[in-house]
Amino acid sequence: MRILHLTDTHLYGDPAARHYGRIDTAAALRGVLARLQGLRDIDAVVHTGDASEDGTVESYRRLHEILDPFAAGLDAPLAVVMGNHDVSTIYGEEIAPGQRVTARQDRVVELPGGGRLVLLDTSVPGAGYGHLEAEQLHWLSDVLAETAPAGTVLALHHPPLIAATPLQRALDLDGLAELGTVLEGSDVRIVLAGHYHHAMTGSIAGIPVHVGPGVANVVDPLTQGADEQALALSGASVIELGDDGPPQVLSAVHPNLGDSLEEVERPVYSFSPEDVSRIVAAAGR
């Protein structure tokens, strides 16, 4: 299996809207796809959430207007996971009904060659952190009880890892032990996630986890000082799962082609510890 992994496009229903007053997120996505025109032999295009910034039908239609032709050109299915900025009920009722209920975008996507994608919706309405209901974990356990010939790729928005920054740690996925129990001994070969806006690796239940860099911006997890910041960059990853051995993950980050200022070195945002506290109070646990 060879998968193109995109994440955190943060599209708007209003084409004039700019992320942090600066980034044309649709142009950022188109810019990433333009750089990927030479890709071949892709079995699936996976978007791991925060597809939309405002959760509107128009933003999701814009997403599919951009991504559907691109995925079709690769002869690959497009799978979209819900993130904390997304509205699962809107996406489920208007765009792509979930496999079980429209309120949760949990689904299985079978791939040519015997592989499969399992999408989990970790979003919590009105919150920034991630959560999986017991019902979702039971559903996942039932799905994984039957193995796929070429294995499974699990995709979700909130990474099953401990984040690198205080803000992201406050908006992390809870219930990692419970999820790990379900994944233990399964045929899941890699877990793909977004949310952090920067590339990161780790593991859960011995399974590799890859967090993709954001399309709308890329967070700098190694910022000096107390502030947390994101830069006017855009990224994407390709994951290759061979017959044997660990996954090969390639990530690339380039200047954001939706940046109205065209200043890569100028942060898109810089959050002080006080800013982080206010965001956590509004969107954290």
Task: Write up this protein.
The protein is α/β, with parallel strands linked by helices and 285 residues long. It has a single domain, classed as 4-Layer Sandwich (Purple Acid Phosphatase, chain A, domain 2). The chain is 25% helix and 23% strand. The chain contains 7 helices and 14 strands. A 6-stranded mixed sheet has the order 4-5-6-7-9-8. A 5-stranded mixed sheet has the order 3-2-1-12-13, covered by helices on one side. Helix 1 runs parallel beside helix 2 and helix 4 packs parallel to helix 6. The longest helix has 17 residues. The termini are far apart. The mean pLDDT is 95.
Number of helices: 7
Classify the secondary structure makeup into a structural class: alpha/beta
Give the H and E element order. EHEHEHEEHEHHEEEEEEEEH
Tell me the helix content. 10-25%
Calculate the terminal CA-CA distance, rounded to whole Å: 37 Å
Largest sheet: 6 strands, mixed
Proportion in β-strands: 15-25%
Mean pLDDT over all positions: 95
Question: At CATH's second level, what is the architecture?
Answer: 4-Layer Sandwich
With strands numbered from the N-terminus, the spatial order across the biggest sheet is 4-5-6-7-9-8
CATH C-level class: Alpha Beta
Rg calc: 18 Å
